[in-house]
Write a structure and sequence with these properties.
Length: 99
């Protein structure tokens, strides 16, 4: 059994947010979370595109004993990082065409 696990989270960005900037900010924030593995740095990559904007895969690694602590701290890091950067809240927009 492997003593290390990968935490898998998703982070939705709004259109207009630079995903490269968001990736850099999140990698820095994740590295500061207690018990995130220093050997295997966190992975943050664009995984999908939705009508609201790009979606990031946010994947820090940790010892199995610290999985849930890192999971919840990762959620907090996403919220705090995006808030501090002033990123807008993702919204889905529809255009209605009148006949």
């Amino acid at each position: 059994m492997n003593p290390f696990r990968r935490v898998d989270r998703l982070a939705q960005l709004a259109h207009g947010v630079d995903p490269i900037d968001a990736i850099a900010r999140l990698k820095s924030a994740l590295a500061a979370i207690p018990n995130v593995s220093k050997e295997a740095g966190p992975d943050v990559e664009i995984i999908d595109f939705t009508p609201m904007g790009p979606v990031l895969a946010v994947r820090p690694y940790c010892h199995t004993n610290h999985y849930w602590q890192v999971y919840f701290d990762t959620n907090k890091a996403i919220v705090q990082t995006f808030g501090a950067a002033g990123y807008p809240v993702p919204e889905q927009h529809f255009r209605v065409k009148q006949a």
